[in-house]
Amino acid sequence: MEIPNDPNSVDTGSDTKTQAVIDKQTIKFLEEKKKDMKKSQYRTKFDALYHEIKDNLVSTAVSYGQKLYESNGWGSMVFYNKMANGAYDYNVYPQKITDRDQNRSGVPVSQEPIAFSKIMIATSVLAGKLPDAEVIGDDKVAVKAYYELWKRTWYLKGGNGENTLTLTFQNLLTYGWAAFRTYPRRVSVKRQGVDKILFDDIYREPLDPARTWLGLGFTNGDYWSQFEVYYEKDMLKSEFFAKYPDAVKNARSLDYCSTTTESKDQNQEKARHSVTIGYYENVLMNRFIVACGKMVIYDGEMPNDESYGSVTVVRCFARDLNDPHGVGLYELMRGNTALFTYINSLNAQQVEAEIYPLLFGAQVQNGTASYKRGPNIVNPKNPGTQIDVVRTTGNVSQGIAFADKQKQDIEENTGVNNIVAGQNAESTLGSTVILKEAAYNRLTPPKNSMMNGLQSDAHIALSWIKQTYSVDKVFMMDNDGDVTQFVKQNPDYFIQSAAITDSNGKPKGYAVTASKNLRLNFDFTPDGEMLENVPTRSVSAKMLFDEMNAHGHTSDYVEFVIDPDSMLLPSLEIQKQTFMALFPVITNQINTIYSLRRSDPEAAASQLRSLEQLLDIQRQDIYDYIPKQQYDDIIALKPSENLPQPPPDPSSIPKVNVSIKADAATPSGQELLSEVGIAPALQSQPVPQQDTGQPGISDNPNPGAPLPVNNVPRPQSPMGSAVDASVGRAGNLPFFPGK
Hints:
This protein is of the alpha+beta class and 739 residues long. It is 41% helix and 19% strand. It has 22 helices and 18 strands. The radius of gyration is 40 Å and the shape is flat. The N and C termini lie far apart (118 Å).
């Protein structure tokens, strides 16, 4: 289709075309684009599915005497008659009825939200944590900074990261596809006459699938065909007029700012107080349009300097290469869910049909095919009759088994079973983990699609970070009092001000620049050496980029490798059991490393690498167990200077026999005691003996010091021998005490 307002073919500065004509062409282009996207065969099919999901995903309203999922008017009637032998013959028949509220059954039935429950379980598992990634680039300082700043945008207060991740996964699993935006956003309010910045950073928000349309040229096999999108958002009229004052000046603009049909269908109340803004993005055409009704707000190139769009689209399972909408979990289980609900309602009426005649049989007449009951109805028991046990036939049991089979089929089709939900576990840790990973593997396609989407999101976020962090935000103030108040209202910003003078040199205002303060736990030297795990430092965003640029720490090549398992919800019980199993291994390995460090540094370094590999597999950090400085020293084969010296071998120490024959009270005795190092006050105490190296015994007060050569622990005697010895001694005691 020919684009009437292609920026590459229309000269906006031509004298022959006014801005009004150009805007008219832009509006016509948008209307045709939306119409073509909305009327495509794939979109028409999705719209029908969307309305079905909206009506039935969470529809737990209770109905009396009706079968759910029976829009064609088919119901069931309960017939039973009293036979000559006093028993009752009852059956449930399907029947075409015009008024299901009068089908003579008062059993309350409700649709169980199985689909919604499975979707929420899968969402909780896949979006359990914020994403993590490995950043690859040309400069390690730039890579570290880009990683920390990207990670910060996800957990930043007001950035809406976690909420966007959860809702995107929920839409992805429910409808089969989802979309979300990534763009810079500022939120501020006026306080004490100046701007108080509430948020000014990278923002994420999920898009409504019902009001987001994908391009006609989309194919699942072509990455570059997936960047045309049109979406709509509603904004309150008061906010819209405050943001776009030109709409108020012209009366024609007020008429053109109207809400769309989709907005009215979703919220009638909002339609009277809001306007609808349409956004069109096409990365390959480098065109971005914002319009409200007949009013064009923007029509030009993509605002991003690297020509990135703001929308990321992900899908669950692909049904057709040409269908931009995937297949979600709802479609995989809606048939089984309908059968489950229908069978449950039949089971309930079957139970009522079998129990009711036994309790209220005296009110039933042969051939009436109806019954009544109520709190004021007296139901006498006929003489000679007896009700011992109220039993139901095998039909109900078979119906329950059939309904449970539907649940089993749902678990097999979706992979969201009781192991994933945490309701069941196997006898061993290994078997539980294996089954849980097998269930996760069923969700690999949506997880991988989300991983690819987060990779695009990371590049979009980094591009905006480079654009917005590296420059100051400029505010104009009238006097120095406003400057002081602005500094007071925004304490988390690095603020500078400069007076603005007129041609006569008189001040006429102040220009204030503000840059967000960042908290970083890394630093770098002018030579490019990374300093990690340093005390947290505060630096403004602009100053950080100025420092990096001054020392050449930039990287044009940057890749984000998203970890697909980083978002999975961890199982606390599995983590606890895993740690209990690894703790002895880690402890013994650390003891071995420090024991070998003095005698064989190369073996200690080899053991340390083995421990690091073990911890990497378990997604743990070696520095949580061994400080980084000691880690570097061990790898560099440096002997330790702080480890205590082991006690000397007792066999290598010559024995000195001191024979004291003099009287301690005489002067000669005092001199002799002084010569051997014994104080007179300690004469009566025994002389300490040298450690003889007895196995299993150590008098060293430092338990971390190595033991002497001959001081090797030996196993204790079995407990049974000690018990036997005690029993033997008890058997040799006299029978009577005191004898």
